[in-house]
Amino acid sequence: MRLFKSAAMAVVCAGFAAAAAPGQSVEEILARADANMSYESIRYSGRMEITVGGETRYKTMDVLAQGTNKAFAEFTNPEDRGTRYLKLDKNLWIYFPKEQDTVKISGHLLKEGMMGSDVSYEDALESADYRARYSALLKGEDTVNGRRCFVVQLSAKVPTASYDRQLLWIDAERYVRLKSEMYAKSGKLLKVGTTLAVVHLGDRWFPARTELVSKLRNNTRTVFSMDKIDIGAALDERQFSLSALSK
Amino acid sequence: MKQRNTMTFAAMAVTVVAVMAAASAGAQDASSWNLGGSVVAQPYAAYDGNGSLEAADFSYGSATTLGLDLRARGERARAEASAEAAVLTGASARAAWSAAASGLARSDELLVPGAAPASPAPATLAAFRLRTLYLKLDFDWATLAAGRQVVNYNRGVLWSPTDLFNELDLTGLSPVRLGTDALRAAVPLGTTGGFDLVAAPTTAPADGRYSARLSGLIAGIDGALTTARAGKGWMFGADFKADIEVGIYGDVAFTLPDSGQAGALRAAAGVDWSIGDFVMAAEYYYNGGGAEADTLFPGSHNLYASLLWNATELFSLSGTVIWDIADGSGTALLLGSLSAAQNATFQAYLKAGYESSTTQVSVQAGLNIEVKF
Questions:
Q1: Would you call A108 and B245 a contact, using CB atoms and an 8 Å cutoff?
Q2: What is the dihedral of CA B84, B135, B206, B169, to 10 degrees?
Q3: What is the average pLDDT score of chain A?
Q4: Is the torsion defined by CA of A131, A134, A137, A140 positive or negative?
Q5: Chain A residue nearest residue B82, CA to CA
Q6: Which residues of A touch B246 (CB under 8 A)?
Q7: Is the pLDDT of residue B12 over 50?
Q8: Please, which pLDDT band fits residue B107 given cuts at 50, 70 and 90?
């Protein structure tokens, strides 16, 4: 089975044109992509649209994050209003307002869908910053929605990486991720992400609307939209603390 | 009853003032307020008997509850009021009426008809509860809160012996924590630590509950030490939650009465883990204090186990068992939960219980329909 999955992966990769960008290394490509998609700090309003079959539910939230290790989110939709998340490194706490209860979430749940979506806690609360957590290999070029892309394979080099392996389709002109495939250690395809909207913020391009489809479930998709994006926002360090979670 | 009503309306007035004050306090800053709530309908049918199928063994009831939450938040102040009004029919009305007559019901839960609880229960009655009402002030060095608030030292899924403010409403599908009239000061210690002082006095202050709790995250372990003065004795407790691929947690409390009698040890330990779409939890509870220490779970050795299957993003199925090992009594709950529409949840459940001392069997089937706004 493992051999079959590895072979399948190889077939996928072989489908891309083998030519790399002349004079551009994969490190340079990732550095430019990281420069666009990673951040020291960010503040935004998020919206998740979870579709199962013909049914769609939405959830809204305000998110603050610093680098890859600190994130704070507060849900604002009626069903989950006041529910808050605090992520510090690999520790995640959830605050439930009705019970005024702060619960530390076990690590095995970090890869579970956040609020019933296809977006895991790790997907939602982490900065991209690929170079810090993955080693990269340029697989070639491909086209996504008519745009030329570099295809980069990422392999986890630190245990804190969310996925064992990822394939990224990086826009060759704007250096922003247009498509991604996330794989488990076994080689199984877990999720496929597609960027639906890219916005220009200051001197960078940023994926502001992304569709995530879980390949472990049938007929589901989650669209995650970011609005009021403030990259480099001045954030109060105390916001990323347990005391702030229950305030 | 009239006195209770007067107290409630006075409390409501204080809430409005507090909320307005909090909102205006942060008016120059990023202040905000919101009003939300829910409507919940819970019809059910039940059987209570020891094998016979007489008409008196069957009952029907319903509860329709409107909950309102008003929250105001300024830069340095926050106020919250949460109130619930319910219309109860049939068995639900009789149960509430009996609780009021027994004196077990809290004095702030009002049965609106105004009759003495000793009289026969009406077929329909209304109830009102002010769940929380507090003002919180935030300083750089501490957060101070005063009023009716939920004080939660909960560590386990079901049992947390150090959680001495755990006033629970167990009438629903899952326990709902009620507010405690208290003063609270929380001092943050670094990013993940804190020192918490709570005073919940009663009309006789010596009978109140007073606690100090030190908590923090050390080497990935979330832990806390608690000491408390509760009624006529002292309580010393410790609890933790750690993560070793699966989540493990423990909670132990030792109660020492002033009377000189032997102290009582209570302890709980649990584990949670997940495989794919399945989330499991198991918990053990030792109660060395019997019914005096824990009226809800008086048995020495108790077990809790749950299995949740997230079948889709919109539908889940769960099973829960609570079992008194020594006594041989327990309950089991099977629950299906469907996100029926945006902000609307539809649940159907089947609950069964067995009481070994009376050989009484109870079975309840019902719905729980909730719309949030």
A1: yes
A2: 20
A3: 83
A4: negative
A5: A98
A6: 106, 108
A7: no
A8: low
Q: What domains does chain A contain, in order, with CATH numbers? A: 2-245 (2.50.20.10)
Q: How sure is the predictor about A94, in pLDDT bands with cuts at 50, 70 and 90? A: very high
All residues of chain A having their beta carbon less than 8 Å from the beta carbon of residue B78 are 247
Q: What is the DSSP annotation of chain A?
A: -HHHHHHHHHHHHHTSB-PPPTT--HHHHHHHHHHHH--SEEEEEEEEEEEETTEEEEEEEEEEEETTTEEEEEE-SGGGTT-EEEEETTEEEEEETTTTEEEEEPGGGTTSBGGGSSSBHHHHH----HHHHEEEEEEEEEEETTEEEEEEEEEE-STT-S-SEEEEEEETTT--EEEEEEE-TTS-EEEEEEEEEEEEETTEEEEEEEEEEETTSSSEEEEEEEEEEEET----GGGSSHHHHT-
Task: Check A242 against B243: CB less than 8 A apart.
Answer: no
Instruction: Tell me: pLDDT of A23 over 70.
Output: no
Give the range among A158-172, B81-95, B115-129, B156-170 with minimum mean pLDDT.
Answer: B115-129
Contact assignment for B339 to A57 by CB distance below 8 Å: yes
Name every residue in A having a CB less than 8 A away from some CB of B.
50, 52, 55, 57-58, 77-79, 81-82, 88, 91, 98-102, 104-109, 112-113, 116-118, 216-217, 220, 238, 240-243, 246-247
Region of residue B290 (phi > 0: left; psi between -120 and 50: alpha; otherwise: beta): left
Per-residue pLDDT of B233-259, as tens digits, reads: 999 999 999 988 789 999 999 999 998
Sequence length of chain A is: 247
pLDDT of residue A11: 32
pLDDT digits (tens, 9 = 90+) for A170-216: 999 999 999 999 998 899 999 999 999 999 998 899 999 999 998 88
Residue of B nearest to A91 (CA): B220
* 3-state SS assignment for residue B101: helix
Please give the structure tokens belonging to residue B265. Answer: 């040890």
- Statement: residue A14 has pLDDT above 60: no
- Cβ pair A245, A74 in contact under 8 A: no
B246: β partners: B244
This prediction has a pTM of 0.83
| Cβ distance of B313 and A52 shorter than 8 Å | yes
Q: A78 to chain B: nearest residue by CA?
A: B373
Report yes or no for ipTM above 0.85.
Answer: no
Contacts with B136 from chain A: Cβ below 8 Å: 247
Residue B283 has phi, psi (to 5 degrees) of -145, 140
Q: Return the CA Rg of chain A.
A: 18
> Minimum mean pLDDT among A106-110, A122-126, B277-281, B296-300: which range?
A122-126
- Taking CA atoms, what residue in B is nearest to A105? B247
B85 with B66: CB under 8 angstroms? yes
Residue B348, burial from CB neighbour count under 10 angstroms (0-12, 13-18, 19+): middle
Q: Is the confidence at residue B326, as pLDDT, over 60?
A: yes
